[in-house]
């Protein structure tokens, strides 16, 4: 059986429509994601094609204003030097933007639009609480500026070696870059604490 989302926060419909029209006016490549796993794109920008190759998933071309399922996230892809004020300043108040970069697509910024209040931090808090944990009892491994609030919000924030200086500055630990198995290093460093927690739980 396929996986089912535990919590869905759809974009407010009219705010999503306004953001889609704004991205179209600005000629920005646009992706749309639905709660049922749908991945849709508008346009034939090389950035959209490169992102699909990075993800290993083929998106479906569609009119994002006419999708049958509600959108949970919109994402604009932009060259790093492109000014984002024309997109960010007029965004509807019901939406919030998270800007990130990927070491596997250098020179590109990903502007993710979610319902206001929905972020990696809110999702992590929901998951932690479902396991009876607080964020102080959790760790986070990240490399993008959209990871900042969560790295600061958990008990142990870990930055990848390829992370931006700002992310490394707030992290309590820095591991090797992605291509040098930094994630494996981060997970291995957590094993002693996990074993200790299990011993305490079983005592």
UniProtKB/TrEMBL annotation:
Q: Which UniProt keywords apply?
A: Hydrolase
In the UniProt record, does the keyword Transmembrane helix occur? no
GO-annotated cellular components:
cytosol
Q: Which domain of life is it from?
A: Bacteria
> Is this entry keyworded Hydrolase?
yes
Q: Extract the PROSITE patterns matched here.
A: COF_2
Q: Per UniProt, what is one GO molecular function of this protein?
A: phosphatase activity
Q: Which Pfam families match?
A: Hydrolase_3
Instruction: List, alphabetically, the InterPro entries matched.
Output: HAD-like_sf, HAD_sf
* Record-linked PANTHER family: HAD SUPERFAMILY HYDROLASE-LIKE, TYPE 3 (PTHR10000:SF8), PHOSPHOSERINE PHOSPHATASE (PTHR10000)
Q: What is this protein called?
A: HAD family hydrolase
Q: Which organism is it from?
A: Thermus scotoductus
Q: What is the lineage of its organism?
A: Bacteria, Thermotogati, Deinococcota, Deinococci, Thermales
């Amino acid at each position: 059986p396929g996986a089912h989302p535990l919590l869905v926060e759809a974009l407010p419909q009219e705010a999503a429509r306004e953001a889609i029209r704004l991205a179209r006016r600005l000629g920005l490549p646009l992706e749309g994601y639905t709660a049922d796993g749908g991945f849709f794109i508008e346009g034939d920008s090389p950035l959209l094609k490169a992102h699909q190759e990075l993800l290993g998933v083929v998106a479906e071309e569609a009119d994002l204003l006419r999708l049958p399922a509600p959108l949970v996230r919109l994402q604009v892809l932009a060259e790093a030097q492109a000014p984002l004020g024309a997109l960010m300043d007029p965004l509807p108040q019901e939406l919030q933007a998270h800007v990130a970069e990927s070491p596997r697509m250098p020179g590109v910024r990903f502007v993710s639009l979610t319902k206001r209040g929905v972020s990696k931090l809110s999702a992590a808090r929901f998951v932690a609480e479902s396991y009876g944990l607080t964020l102080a009892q959790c760790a986070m491994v990240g490399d993008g500026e959209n990871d900042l609030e969560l790295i600061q919000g958990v008990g142990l924030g870990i930055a990848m070696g390829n992370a931006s200086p700002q992310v490394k500055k707030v992290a309590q630990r820095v591991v090797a870059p992605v291509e040098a198995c930094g994630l494996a290093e981060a997970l291995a460093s957590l094993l002693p604490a996990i074993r200790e927690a299990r011993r305490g739980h079983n005592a």
